[in-house]
Task: inverse folding
């Protein structure tokens, strides 16, 4: 009963803390005894003062691109970090101003043999560092991990520089099978009494066992050991913490390894690297995606210090790796990001003059969750600390079971004046929103005035001279394959004929073919008067059915992964262009003869050439003039239209558009819409970048050359002719997919399916005003 009460109390305290102080802390705990957040006035009739005091986030330049951190040593404002830049490189970085600025220490690492890498390293008393290291595996699939029996060294820091001394811990003789996985001490820590503790892993995989071993650091003699499984250690002010990933933290007696006590692992935090402590005050600090917290030693009384919603580390594209508490006013957080060679360092310092809550709020909405969009939102948030940026994906909201539910909820909020400020319109009936003047005219924004963008993509979303929506990035539908096979394919019927005539390989890869094809050929389906062409619907359904039957893999067919013309699977979005990317690489590897889908990657484009002997791959727009885009608009009923416009200008800026070509958005690639960024993308890259491409094709027995200016000219010519956005209304595609699935599986006749689709679509389009 006490435990339940303490958890309820903790929850209540967190809730009250968030309501009253956001991520503030009391003045008594402030680093320089600054006053705490100002309390709000309770006098009736008097204006309330804004609560002040919040942690300010700052991105700190680090002197080297750190990949792994072995140990952190703190003393006052001085903090030192032992780290690895890349396999075979080891160094130490130091800050003397609580992590605000850093320098790499000048260390001689000639003691580390060539083709060896550090496994573990830790600071020890009397200016000593212990290091274990092993030979890098020569197997390219082993990710360069250290193999064999590890070696050890003791480094002594002296005025003359580092001195090295051998160190030989008393370890059992390894079995031969242990050596491939690497045999030796990992996760080493050294206490103030000079004893060294580490984890000895025995074997790998399901048979892996481990032992925690403690040694005399002078002679390497074992003091004690205890069995464990997969585990990690952390030492804080001579307190030894053990995490065996069972939801608890054990506090060990460093003298003999016995349990002294244990506490629960904080919710959302699995690793000791993301925790810190003040043993003398019986306090823990920890970090997860929701924020930075302090807690008592029982983890029952917890306070939110830094709100994850106001911080970059909550970004889904980042992964928390290390956390360090300097004191209760300064925290250091290391992140792994997709756009950096090394860890990113964020520093949080309490600022009593910063409003507890940001001055402005910007609400951003998309129907489906979008990785690229989350990255852009995170970038805007990190450069606008006084804006609370919230992002909602309608299909992920609680209580939402279908696209229809999500859109209905959104429409209700918009009409009530409570809708989002920025709308990403993919899947939404943006034509209807434009007709109802829900969307703001964007012609006055800077990027429209200065002609910085690929203009024809933008004019495709104009209506009566008003710019209701803007593309942020785009892709084009293509057919890729041997030039001789695809050159005569101009329609779904031609595609079907090509499949029939292909014998040697699986003839086609085409993800989500049914909704994808209806989306890109919609201009043939909906007539100028808004009605639906029965003939075109019937032709597309028949073509999809025949392709589905021709390509359906038999049981145990090894080519099944490449025979992917199929109706939409249950549980996935009705349609999302990111599920329909062309797969150039399966063609080059000889896994399939052709592929249809969206092209949005310069890497994929450069691969469609004569790089491999005996291959002559080509591409063509299929169909011409059509494109898909990440489409944005501003809710005209929003009170934050100026801030929403600032957000659009930010994500369409040259700097932010570089995201689409610098490799930081690798999951669902798309072309930039910024003219200068496009030209940068088309330019031949530096030799080291070309080497990456060359390595890929050398492994396939070919060579690589950057596409000629003529090849890029052809691509640019096709793009200059784009004027037809693919139809991506989620409710239209959901109706087609749901009813088409029954026909493809043989559960409904063609005539029944066509009639049901036409009736459903014409009713929906008439009600939404799109068919007017």
Result:
């Amino acid at each position: 009963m006490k435990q339940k009460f303490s958890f309820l109390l903790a929850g209540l305290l967190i809730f009250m803390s968030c309501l009253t102080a956001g991520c503030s802390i009391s003045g008594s705990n402030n680093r320089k005894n600054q006053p705490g957040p100002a309390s709000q006035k309770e006098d009736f009739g008097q204006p309330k003062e804004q609560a002040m005091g919040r942690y300010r986030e700052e991105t700190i330049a680090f002197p080297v691109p750190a990949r792994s951190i072995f140990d952190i040593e703190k003393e006052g404002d001085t903090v030192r970090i032992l780290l690895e830049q890349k396999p075979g490189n080891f160094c130490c970085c130091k800050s003397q101003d609580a992590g605000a600025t850093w320098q790499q220490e000048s260390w001689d690492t000639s003691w580390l043999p060539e083709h060896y890498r550090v496994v573990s390293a830790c600071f020890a008393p009397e200016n000593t560092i212990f290091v274990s290291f092993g030979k890098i595996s020569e197997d390219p699939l082993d990710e360069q991990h250290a193999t064999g029996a590890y070696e050890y060294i003791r480094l002594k820091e002296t005025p003359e520089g580092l001195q090295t001394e051998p160190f030989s811990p008393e370890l059992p003789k390894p079995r031969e099978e242990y050596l491939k996985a690497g045999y030796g001490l990992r996760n080493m820590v050294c206490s103030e009494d000079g004893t060294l503790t580490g984890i000895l892993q025995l074997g790998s995989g399901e048979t892996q066992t481990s032992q925690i071993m403690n040694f005399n650091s002078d002679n390497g003699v074992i003091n004690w050991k205890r069995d464990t499984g997969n585990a990690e250690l952390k030492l804080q002010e001579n307190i030894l913490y053990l995490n065996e990933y069972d939801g608890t933290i054990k506090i060990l007696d460093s003298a003999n390894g016995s349990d002294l006590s244990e506490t629960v692992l904080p919710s959302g935090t699995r690793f000791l690297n993301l925790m810190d402590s003040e043993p003398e005050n019986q306090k823990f600090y920890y970090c997860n995606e929701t924020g930075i917290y302090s807690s008592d030693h029982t983890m029952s009384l917890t306070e939110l210090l830094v709100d994850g919603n106001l911080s970059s580390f909550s970004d889904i594209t980042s992964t928390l790796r290390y956390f360090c508490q300097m004191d209760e006013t300064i925290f250091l957080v290391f992140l792994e990001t997709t756009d950096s060679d090394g860890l990113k360092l964020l520093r949080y310092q309490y600022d009593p003059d910063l409003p507890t809550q940001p001055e402005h709020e910007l609400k951003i909405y998309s129907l489906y969750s979008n990785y690229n969009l989350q990255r852009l939102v995170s970038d805007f948030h990190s450069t606008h600390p006084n804006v609370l940026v919230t992002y909602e994906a309608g299909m992920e909201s609680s209580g939402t079971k279908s696209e229809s539910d999500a859109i209905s909820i959104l429409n209700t909020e918009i009409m009530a004046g409570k809708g989002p400020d920025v709308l990403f319109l993919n899947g939404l009936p943006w034509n209807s929103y434009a007709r109802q003047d829900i969307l703001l005219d964007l012609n006055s924004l800077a990027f429209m005035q200065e002609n910085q963008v690929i203009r024809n993509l933008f004019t495709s979303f104009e209506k009566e001279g008003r710019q209701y929506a803007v593309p942020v990035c785009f892709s084009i539908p293509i057919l890729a394959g041997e030039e001789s096979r695809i050159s005569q394919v101009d329609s779904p019927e031609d595609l079907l004929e090509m499949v029939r005539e292909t014998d040697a390989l699986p003839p086609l890869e085409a993800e989500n073919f049914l909704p994808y094809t209806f989306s890109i050929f919609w201009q043939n389906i909906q007539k100028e008067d808004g009605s639906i062409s029965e003939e075109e619907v019937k032709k597309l359904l028949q073509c999809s059915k025949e392709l589905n039957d021709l390509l359906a893999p038999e049981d145990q067919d090894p080519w099944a992964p490449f025979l992917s013309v199929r109706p939409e699977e249950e549980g996935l979005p009705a349609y999302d262009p990111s599920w329909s990317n062309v797969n150039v690489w399966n063609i080059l590897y000889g896994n399939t003869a052709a592929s249809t889908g969206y092209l949005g990657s310069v890497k994929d484009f450069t691969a469609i050439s004569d790089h491999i002997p005996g291959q002559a791959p080509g591409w063509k727009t299929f169909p011409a003039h059509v494109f898909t885009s990440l489409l944005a608009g501003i809710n005209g009923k929003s009170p934050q239209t100026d801030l929403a416009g600032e957000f659009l200008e930010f994500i369409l800026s040259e700097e932010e558009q570089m995201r689409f070509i610098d490799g930081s958005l690798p999951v669902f690639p798309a072309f930039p819409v910024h003219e200068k960024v496009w030209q940068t993308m088309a330019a031949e890259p530096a030799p080291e970048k070309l080497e990456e491409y060359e390595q890929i094709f050398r492994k396939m027995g070919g060579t690589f050359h950057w596409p000629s200016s003529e090849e890029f000219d052809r691509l640019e010519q096709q793009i200059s002719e784009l004027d037809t956005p693919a139809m991506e209304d989620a409710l239209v595609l959901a109706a087609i997919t749901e009813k088409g699935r029954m026909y493809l599986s043989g559960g409904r006749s063609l005539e029944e399916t066509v009639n049901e689709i036409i009736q459903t679509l014409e009713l929906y389009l008439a009600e939404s005003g799109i068919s007017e």
